[in-house]
Write a structure and sequence with these properties.
The protein is an all-alpha fold. 75% of the residues lie in helices and 0% in strands.
Length: 153
Amino acid sequence: MLKEHARLARPYFVLLAIVTAGRWLLGNAFHVPYEKGTFYFSLVTLTIMASLFSPVFMRRWLGWRLVQAAGFAAFMAVVSQLVIWLSTIVSYGLGIESYFNHPMALNRQADPIAFGAAMVFRAVGVVANTILNAIAGSLGWALGGLLPTRTGH
């Protein structure tokens, strides 16, 4: 099942790589302040949109059930959160100030936080975003009922 999810998520993985690179570049190469640049490349927004739209088509064209759609959306969320988690670790490990370890990204406050506290925050994000995306996938699946069948009926 994970292999099939990974195969179907290939376009999403390309977008995930682009958005991740965009976040790194905005903050580190172009030095755009977090408050101004974070909304241009948001992994969370990308994942929610993918979780909404992918199941729309998978229901109608692949015959997926609700649980499959929610599971696929959760899979994308976990992968995205893993990218965020690893980017946060790299930022702290290399002593880089990035969009991934910016205090506003971690605890919505201006004061920097320690690595351990950041990892706790990221762990909460894994759980919360996985649940949120599973819900978005379920909604997308429901919307998939509005698409016509392959025969147009």
